[in-house]
UniProtKB/TrEMBL annotation:
Keywords: Repeat, Ubl conjugation pathway. One of its GO terms (biological process) is ubiquitin-dependent protein catabolic process. InterPro entries: Beta_helix, Carb-bd_sugar_hydrolysis-dom, F-box-like_dom_sf, F-box_dom, F-box_FBXO11, FBXO11_UBR-box, Para_beta_helix_rpt-2, PbH1. This is F-box domain-containing protein. Residues 49-81 are annotated as: Disordered. Residues 90-136 form the F-box domain. Pathway: Protein modification; protein ubiquitination. Residues 51-65 have a biased composition (Polar residues).
């Protein structure tokens, strides 16, 4: 074995004497970036046996060139050439079985293996065997999967079977070769056995992380530090240069490399560490006294001014009930935190603020002294910064919010999971900002996202679901852009807007909530546009207590109660929406509410299209209201809306029903093809109908009953089945310039033919005509008997005229039952 290795080294040394134009770089993946800068000789045709003297004399120089032979080289020792070595070299290079060569190569370290690869093409192929390099790789780095490092600040592990290059172990070895190693207890063994590790003289080993950082400061190496398996406790880790520190262990690396501190911040990044990297390790702050006041200044990670380190694939834990896990403070502090697990901490998950240090001149509120924060700035990630990037982190089971952002902080949080917090998921307050994109926010005890006190974050493309309270909660002058989120399955409203808050809410899906979809109250505002709100247990949208949102181009449908519900002085604008298929009305307005409802399509309600009641108001203009199970518009109980230029048609009941003291202005509406009266006015109501067209109805055009009154001006009433205008006894109407024409007058025709009105009314309509009772048959006011039934069925009975009014004839039903018996 020793002679074989010596032979390889001799061949390599002789190769070094070959002119540059006769050698080539080593082939194979990663050769161009190899740190070894090795070269091998040019591949030549297979040598023949030594020729005879005569043949040598007759050989020409050109023939030698044609066959690719080169002139004989002098031996390295300088002695005369020994041709007897050629057969041995030939045997080693060509005849020795692969299994034997691989066995021999398995005893070589990486540099000798690279030298062997330079001998010939066959040795190059065998020396690049992945199994050889895997053994060397795991001996040095411990990883059970190759850790690729293609560029600064980027590390990732791969599956060798799926990698595009044939030998990822060697490629990773080349990329990581120049690093120093922290491996407690190994340094003494390494340096006391130079023969065993010959060829690795450039590798550096340290017993502690502090010693390795000292080596960086003394320029012993470039700054790549591998921290091997173990628990490193109470080391003073202050980083003042752009070092790279990464865990090195088999299996799940971060679980095997644990760095913790019980007295001071575990990591402190200082100015000069702008592009530092820390990855694949567990970082813990675990004080003995978890609630002591002096711990509030210590953290798992502390990042100061002008630092932008990358924290990657780390597990971050803090068991202190004060202080925080990560503190980023000062101007220019902008960390990137990605693929981290931040959980099981005793307070807030991420706390992001400027700590009232007035790093930005435009700040308006007073300077708050740091002492006011003691005992309050508590949690997992305490970030006192303007910016920061957090990607693919798992933040869960923290005692306070998963993220807390305040005071102009503007982090970017992408594809994180924020869940099972004992309070909320994300809390943005005191003019906080931030970009929260494509995260999963779920199963938090309070709202998934809280936005308050003039904060203005962007919440985009997130899934916010299964919260024990609401999805997104915006209050106390909060703002923000809530866009493209999927918000569902929350115990309270999917989005709640209150107390002068004014967000933009658009392109969201808000559905299957156990409460309402969007709840705007206590002077809430905002633009709510192009959302889909559906299948919520209560109202799709609630607007109340002085709120004035703008709801535009939304699809609000399939709710288990009301579509949009304005009550207790709820106002705002509802325009260009599709509102359909609700178990109750599409829109309800009550108790002083006065919204503007225009250009909507409202259909498929099981309890009507729009219901205005209990002193409701509103401007209802240019809507299309159709195919509702009950009236297209209900106005009752002292309500006084304005309906203008609406199309109210194809209802399964009436067009507009006004009763119980309802009022309102109905102007320039088209009311047609409804199953019941186009307009029914009843029970002390007094609306104004002006310039409406009421036509093609399957019952009456207008019916006024039960002591109601009305003002009718300039209306056109035509082609209705029962007739144009029906007035009950005791009704006084003010009429001017109305046109009642070309109605079918089915009631008058039925009476003139002696037909019972049941023939045209059945159970589906309520024709208006003379209303009788029969004392002989002891009927009551509830039993309607038409004039033809009085003449035929009750002829000779003691009958009494009650009034001219609308009713369904029960006489026909009684007669049919008698016949059946």
């Amino acid at each position: 074995m020793y002679l074989f290795i010596c032979k390889i080294r001799a061949i390599k040394q002789s190769d070094d004497d070959v002119p540059a134009d006769m050698v080539a770089e080593e082939s194979g993946p990663g050769a161009q970036n190899s740190p070894y800068q090795l070269r091998r000789k040019t591949l030549l045709p297979k040598r023949t046996a030594c020729p005879t003297k005569n043949s040598m004399e007759g050989a020409s120089t050109s023939a030698t060139e044609n066959f690719g032979h080169r002139a004989k080289r002098a031996r390295v020792s300088g002695k005369s050439q020994d041709l007897s070595a050629a057969p041995a070299e030939q045997y080693l290079q060509e005849k020795l079985p692969d299994e034997v060569v691989l066995k021999i190569f398995s005893y070589l370290l990486e540099q000798d293996l690279c030298r062997a690869a330079c001998v010939c093409k066959r040795f190059s192929e065998l020396a690049n065997d992945p199994i050889l390099w895997k053994r060397l790789y795991m001996e040095v780095f411990e990883y059970t999967r190759p850790m690729m490092h293609p560029e600064a600040g980027k590390f990732y592990q791969i599956n060798p079977e799926e990698y595009e290059h044939p030998n990822p172990w060697k490629e990773s070895f080349q990329q990581l070769y120049k690093g120093a190693h922290v491996k407690p207890g190994f340094a003494e063994h390494f340096y006391s056995n130079p023969a065993r590790y010959k060829g690795r003289e450039n590798m550096l080993y340290y017993d502690t992380i502090e010693d390795a950082l000292g080596g960086v400061q003394e320029a012993h190496f470039d700054g790549l530090i591998f921290v091997h398996s173990g628990i490193y406790t109470d080391e003073w880790i202050y980083i003042e240069s752009p070092i790279t520190m990464i865990g090195a262990a088999p299996g799940k690396v971060a679980d095997k490399v644990i760095i913790e501190n019980t007295r001071d911040s575990t990591f402190v990044f200082m100015e000069g560490s702008e592009d530092a990297y820390v990855g694949y390790m567990t970082i813990r702050f675990n004080p003995d006294d978890k609630s002591a006041q002096h711990h509030n200044a210590h953290h798992c990670l502390e990042i100061t001014v002008n630092c932008s380190p990358i924290i990657d694939h780390c597990i971050i834990r803090s068991t202190c009930t004060v202080g925080s896990a990560v503190c980023v403070s000062g101007q220019g502090a902008c960390p990137t935190i990605k693929h981290c697990n931040i959980s099981d901490c005793e307070n807030v998950g991420l706390y992001i603020t400027d700590h009232a240090q007035r790093c930005w001149g435009e700040r308006e509120h007073q300077n708050i002294q740091p002492s006011l924060f003691q005992g309050y700035l508590q949690g997992t990630l305490y970030v006192l910064c303007l910016k920061g990037y957090f990607e693919s982190c798992n933040i869960h089971r923290n005692r306070i919010a998963g993220f807390e952002v305040k005071a102009y902080a503007n982090p970017t949080v992408v594809r994180c999971e924020i869940h099972h917090g004992q309070t909320g998921g994300i809390y943005v307050h005191e003019k906080g900002r931030g970009q929260f994109i494509e995260n999963k926010i779920y199963a938090n005890n309070f709202a998934g996202v809280w936005i308050t006190s003039n904060s203005d974050p962007t919440i985009r493309g997130n899934a916010i679901f299964n919260g024990n309270q609401g999805g997104v909660y915006i209050f106390g002058d909060g703002r923000g852009l809530i866009e493209g989120n999927d918000i569902y399955g929350n115990a309270l409203a999917g989005i709640q807007i209150r107390t002068n808050s004014c967000p933009i809410v658009r392109h969201n899906k808000i559905h299957d909530g156990q409460h309402g979809g969007i709840y705007v109250h206590e002077k809430g505002q905002g633009v709510i546009e192009e959302n889909e709100v559906y299948s919520n247990t209560l109202a799709g949208v609630w607007v109340t207590t002085g709120s004035t949102p703008v709801l535009r181009r939304n699809r609000i449908h399939s709710g288990k109660q009301v579509g949009v519900y304005f009550y207790d002085n709820g106002h705002g604008v509802l325009e260009d929406n599709d509102i359909y298929n609700h178990m109750y009305s599409g829109v309800q307005i009550r108790t002083g509410s006065n919204p503007k409802i225009r250009r909507n399509k409202i259909w498929g309600g099981q309890n009507g299209g729009i219901l205005v009641y209990n002193s409701g108001l509103g401007f209802i203009e240019d809507n299309e209201i159709f195919d509702n199970a009950m009236a297209g518009v209900w106005i009752k109980t002292d309500s006084n809306p304005t309906l203008r230029r609406n199309k109210i048609h194809d209802g399964r009941d009436g067009g507009i029903c006004i009763f119980n003291g309802g009022r309102g202005l109905l102007e320039e509406n088209d009311i047609f093809r409804n199953a019941q009266a186009g307009v029914l006015i009843s029970t002390n109501s007094h609306p104004v109908l002006r310039k409406n067209r009421i036509f093609d109805g399957f019952a009456a055009g207008i019916e006024i009953t039960n002591h109601a009154t009305a003002t009718l001006e300039g209306n056109q009433i035509f082609n209705n089945r029962f007739g144009g205008l029906f007035l009950a006894s005791g009704v006084n109407v003010t009429m001017k310039d109305n046109k009642i024409m070309n109605n079918q007058d089915a009631i008058e025709k039925a009476v003139s033919r002696g037909q019972c009105l049941y023939k045209i009314s059945s159970y589906t309509s309520y024709p208006m005509h003379d209303f009788y009772r029969c004392h002989t048959c002891n009927t009551t006011d509830r039993n309607a008997i038409c004039v033809n039934c009085i003449k035929k069925c009750h002829q000779g009975h003691d009958v009494e005229f009650i009034r001219h009014d609308r009713y369904v004839s029960n006489e026909r039903v009684s007669r049919q039952r008698r016949r059946e018996n």
